[in-house]
Design a protein that fits this description.
By secondary structure, the protein is of the alpha/beta class. About 50% of the residues lie in helices and about 10% in strands. Strands 2-3-4-1-5 form a five-stranded parallel beta sheet. The chain is globular, with a radius of gyration of 26 Å.
Length: about 525
């Protein structure tokens, strides 16, 4: 009965959406597929009176009762609960198909998946609507959005946050911070403070948490988004009040691990799956610039490629970009490589996206461009990457052949970054506080692209060690490390940390990148 109840609610929601689309089409004088009308008639026969006449709310018991009556009379036998569930679920699936086929999103409106904007896939309407309904529901305080890397979780919640504030005016403020695998509490606090124009008076993590909590509790309606959460985190340690203590503060978190949502006590969990086959094909056609029509000689290989992308928007876009202007033979070769890819050191859930991004990397062709991408992976997740820093690293490492000066290296890097941006492997980024005396060209790297780049770098050169503390550096140092990146605050609870112990660097090490938030130099580090 509980499953029938849940499906009945979803069926009612889809019915509302289809009715709204039909109304819009009629008002605009547009034609639409008659399958939409037929589906609505079928649903109305089953659901009967779906609204409580007293207050206009869904009367679930009435829906279920009417549905069971309809099934019983049509089957001319005692209603079977499992059969009822199956038939209602079939209607739900048909409704989703009606929305996708009869009222498709204009393909010319599709933007880059994680770069320029949000992709409005019809197959994502349901997840979008569930989260929006959760934000309106006074009983829901913490919403978890889970799904594989590259599914578009971040863009979805960013779009929801923007619309919840600007269109529906559910919140006065929306703040977002990336948590990532290496949790940096101070950094998260700093991001929220910048967004709320809060200047911390205290320097300890606990002191800053208290000030941030005070600020958030003064806001009557605020949405906090924590992106890319890998394990249970203590909201109070950051300074984010829990919903039971402040009803005006709601939280959305995104994660690749559903168990994180359970551990965090999410009152609503929304699972983000792959996009449907038609949308996947449309996105690939646009990304590969096939002018919305697949040439006859590419049909077979294109279908194979899209299938191998497994409905992952990030994979579809990067592979599509990699194959722009390629020959039919190269399309066939790409399809073969994807189908034959086998990575024993990658978790099963990630193999599809790794194979697709590795193909995009291989199709960059130029070693200079590939090396530029690998250099970008040295920056912590979600970091701003300054192109000028890439120039210095590449020149110092002599990554480019026949480059005799820093200016020549700069031109190489600028060209490489442009190619990577066009390939959707990097995205342009505008600093929050740009240097007025220096025109900063900055980029960012998607966390999944970064994961794959670090994996490739390890195979081709040796491990790239990226850490945010001296203690972690000593722990993770590898005997064949090629590069080290250390971003350290060099303080602990507001006080300078003790001098770090000496770290043994291997002979294979070619680059050490230090980004220290302290004027005190760790003298023993290089002894």
């Amino acid at each position: 009965m509980e499953e029938l109840n849940r499906n009945a609610k979803e069926l009612w929601r889809i019915q509302r959406e289809v009715e709204e689309e039909v109304k819009k089409a009629k008002e605009a004088g547009k034609e639409f597929d008659e399958e939409a009308t037929k589906w609505l008639e079928k649903v109305k026969k089953i659901s009967g009176n779906m609204k409580d006449k007293r207050d206009g709310k869904v009367e679930t018991n009435m829906i279920v009762h009417n549905m069971k009556e309809w099934f019983s009379s049509n089957n001319q036998s005692k209603s079977n609960s499992s059969q009822d569930v199956l038939e209602v679920k079939t209607l739900v699936d048909e409704g989703k198909s009606v929305l996708t086929v009869c009222f498709p999103v204009d393909s010319t409106g599709i933007e880059d998946v994680w770069r320029a904007g949000f992709v409005k896939f019809n197959s994502r309407r349901f997840e979008y609507n569930r989260i929006m309904e959760g934000l309106r529901d006074e009983e829901v305080g913490l919403i978890g959005t889970c799904g594989m890397g590259g599914m578009g979780k971040t863009k979805l919640v960013e779009e929801i946050g923007m619309n919840a504030k600007k269109l529906e005016i559910l919140f006065d403020h929306v703040v977002i911070a990336t948590v990532s695998q290496e949790v940096d509490i101070r950094n998260i606090q700093g991001i929220f403070a910048d967004m709320l124009n809060l200047t911390f008076k205290k320097n300890t993590e606990s002191g800053r948490a208290y000030e941030l909590r005070e600020k958030l509790e003064k806001e009557s309606k605020i949405l906090v988004i924590l992106d890319d959460v890998w394990e249970k985190i203590n909201m109070e340690s950051i300074g984010v009040p829990v919903y039971s203590n402040h009803k005006g503060c709601k939280i959305i978190l995104t994660t690749r691990r559903e168990e994180v949502c359970d551990d965090m006590g999410c009152s609503l969990i929304v699972r983000l799956g792959k996009i449907d086959d038609n949308e996947a094909m449309g996105l690939f056609i646009k990304s590969a610039e096939l002018i919305y029509k697949i040439p006859g000689e590419l049909i077979k290989s294109t279908k194979k490629i899209v299938k191998e992308c497994a409905g992952l928007p990030l994979a579809i876009v990067t592979v599509g970009r990699a194959l722009r202007g390629r020959s039919p033979d190269e399309f066939e070769d790409a399809a073969l490589k994807l189908s034959n890819s086998s990575y024993v050191d990658i978790q099963d859930a990630d193999k599809d996206v790794y194979a697709c991004l590795k193909l995009s990397y291989d199709y960059l062709r130029e070693k200079d461009v590939q090396n530029c991408l690998l250099l970008c992976s040295l920056y912590p997740e979600d970091s701003m990457i300054m192109v000028e820093e890439l120039v210095r690293y590449s020149y110092g490492l002599w990554l480019f052949e026949k480059v005799e000066s820093v200016d020549e290296a700069r031109q190489k890097i600028i060209k490489s970054v442009e190619i990577l941006e066009k390939a959707s492997l990097l995205s342009q980024h505008k600093p929050l506080d740009p240097d007025p005396f220096l025109e900063q060209h900055c980029v960012k790297m998607h966390d999944v692209v970064r994961d794959v780049a670090l994996w490739i770098a390890k195979k081709e050169y040796g491990p790239f060690i990226v850490v945010n503390s001296f203690k972690e550096l000593k722990k993770k140092m590898s005997e064949n490390a090629f590069a080290v990146s250390l971003t350290s605050p060099y303080y602990y609870n507001g006080e300078s940390s003790p001098e770090p112990e000496e770290v043994c660097f291997p002979a294979t090490l070619k680059l050490v990148r230090l980004h220290l938030k302290s004027k005190k130099w760790p003298g023993q580090l290089f002894k």
